[in-house]
Structure formats: structure tokens, C-alpha cells
Amino acid sequence: MPTWESSHNEYTTRFQMRRSRVLQNEISNPPNQRFGSHQSCSRQRFQQLSKQRLSISKDADPILGRNPFFLKDDEWRITRKVQTNQHSVSKLKTLFGYVDEVKDELIAYLNNNLGKKFETQELCARFTTDIVSSCVFGIKTTSHTDESSEFRKRSEHILDNNWRMLMWQVAPKLVDMLKIPLLDKISHNYFYNLVKSVVEMRKEKNLSRADFIQNLIDEKNENFSLMDMTAQTMTFFIDGFASSATEMSFMLFMLAIYPEVQDRLREELNSSKKLDFDTLHHLPYLDAVLNETLRLYPVGVSLNRECNQDTTITVKNKKYEFKVGDLLEIPVYAIHRDPQYFENPLSFDPDRFLTEPNNPALLTFGVGPRACLGSRFAKTQIKAGIAALVQNFRIVPGTNDCSMPTITNNKSLLITPDNEMSVKFEKL
């Protein structure tokens, strides 16, 4: 298989059943823009490079087939507009009370389990599950203590369909041809019926609650079916549950193996009287630690755009021609670890984002019009959870292995560490 290598990291392409594939290597914009090839492709040439490589047929998968990540052209624009309205700062602020409530429950649970070893991914996934169940569906779950929770089981199962994920990534045209759904039938029926029951109950009893599903009910869009509503809630759910849990788990582990960073973060947090929504988003060192985690361990290792119109991009007097059907791949993981864009890239150094907080080479949440809309909500729950943990406990490694996580497994949809990431909590 062809490979692209950049500063100790190998980016491997896979057979995609596509006519051609272009790996974006060292394409930089003219002077005064240190890094910009992804900007050229994702913003300046958005009309020509607006399609995602992967798509899911709505006939095969009615829920995920309506996810804006997979939609194209006008369907994408319409759905994107609805999603944009739901992710406004004002609406996210109304959800913060639910985040706060789940955070308090997590602290209470850990106070009863001091010294116990926790696998960070599992702990953080339960935390984000409870947040999303409340903020999106308006239902109460207690994932840390209720092992029988059907909602939690369905949430876990979404990411456990490994063969579906692998087929979807390796041979998308075959998946489309055979109409293989990414979401299994049991999960599809569970979440569709959940949304249906919540919507019907609120309409029948004239109930209202400040959450995501209520925002969709209030839209009163006649062209917006119950299936569309389910797809919208699932978009918010998947972004808020899976991606956030993964990034939070890496951040938690890095704080455990870098106690000096943890102490410095605790000092910043303790200097704030109240950690409300606004305060959490104006703490420089908290931002820096999160950004450094996102740099080293981006949820998705790459971004891609498929060319839907013949176009030419000229950079440094060199022309790059793209034909319809060509695929542009932006190797995020490799770029984040390239010394051309980040000094000492393999070091965990949050200070780099204090001097340059808006480094354009940080691509974790994408770039351009198709950038992830859920990034603000994801950061909110990660920051709220991490801040509470750091203020209440000393976080220590769960084993004697304090080495940084390594990533060689590319079979999972989300970035997955090779080594165990576990922590223990001690009272301050």
C-alpha cells in the first residue's frame, strides 16, 4: 500500500474503489501564511471540493444517511443551516445547567471510589453519555452506577460495529452498492422510537424543556419529518458522546502523566470564583492543555474532499490539477506532528498554544464550511468535566507505565491508543 511519511509518522492510504487519490503533502500558501493548503482547498475552492469522500444512502440507512457529515450539495446546506441554529452560543448556554448536574454526579461517584483504577475511555464515555442523554433527548441516565441502562448499551453498540466501520472506510462504493447500513437495525429502531416517544409525550402533555429535541420541535418545519428529527438528534448525540469522550480520555491521561501541567491547571482553575459557561471558555491554560491534546491525538486522523468540478490550485507557482472524482486527503495526524508547523512536535507542551492560541495548522475539528459544528459543545463538556476533576482530585496514573499513548491501530473509526490509559483519583 502507498504511504506518506512526515516526521516519524506514517500515513497509510487504503483501497477505496475510487478512480484516483491525491495525498496533500507540502502545499503551502504564499508568504505571510505559514500554513494554508487546507485553507485553499476547504475555503477558497469549496465549490469545487465540497463533497465528502464517504456517503451513506438514505435508503440503506435512513438515520445516518441524513447526517450532514454524509450529505452533499443542497441537502447538506439545508441540514447544515438547522444544525447551525442549534449550536448557537445562547442555546448552548441553556444546556450548561445539565452539564453541571452530570459533572456533580461524577464527582460524587468518584468520591466513593477513591483509589480505584479507571480506564479513561470508559469513564469519560459514561460521563458524556449522561450529558448527551439529558441535553439532546431530555432523559435522565446514570451510567456510572446503572449497568443495565439500555441507553448506555445502545450508545456503546453504535461504535462496536467494527465490520461495518471497516467496510465503510475501505470500500465505500461496495457498501453503497449493497446498501449496507452503518447503523444496525436494533439501534436504528431504538433511537427512532426514543425520539418518537419524547416528541409525542411533549406534544400530548404540552410539556417543554430547554434541550436540543425541544429546539427541533419548536422549529415547526412541516417538511421536517420524524426521521429527519431523529437524524438531527443522532448527529448531536454522536458528536457529543463518542468524539468528546475520546478527546477527554486522552486529556485526562496526559494530566495524570504530566503532574506539573495538572498542578498549573489547578492553579488557574482555583483562581476563578465560578466556573460557568463563559469562564470555562476564557481560561488560557485550560484552552492550551485541551488544544495540545487535540493536536497530539485528533479524533480523526485525516480530512478529505472529493472534487466535483475540474479545478486547478496554484501554489508557489506550481499548479495542482484536480479532476472530477479525484480525492484530496489532508493527513491531519501527520500534519499535527510535523516540525514544520509545530516545534518539538512529539512533546506534550501546552505552552505552545499560549503563544499561538489560533495556530491554523490545528485541524482537529476540520476547516472551512464543513468544519465540525459540534466543536463548541464538545469543548464545553470536556472542559467542565476536566475542570471539576482537577479541582477535586489529584489524578495519578493507574499503572506504572507513564509513557505517552502510541497510535498504530487504524481500524477504528476514532483514534484508539495501543497502550492502556488508566488513572486513579486521590483526595487533595
From TrEMBL:
Originating organism: Lygus hesperus (Western plant bug)
PROSITE patterns on file: CYTOCHROME_P450
Gene Ontology, cellular component aspect: endoplasmic reticulum membrane
Primary residence: endoplasmic reticulum
The name this protein goes by in its record: Uncharacterized protein
Location in or out of the cell: Endoplasmic reticulum membrane; Microsome membrane
Taxonomic lineage from the root: Eukaryota, Metazoa, Ecdysozoa, Arthropoda, Hexapoda
One Pfam family per UniProt: p450
UniProt KW Iron-sulfur keyword: no
Topology relative to the membrane: Peripheral membrane protein
Keyword annotations of the record: Endoplasmic reticulum, Heme, Iron, Membrane, Metal-binding, Microsome, Monooxygenase, Oxidoreductase
PANTHER family per UniProt: CYTOCHROME P450, CYTOCHROME P450 28A5-RELATED
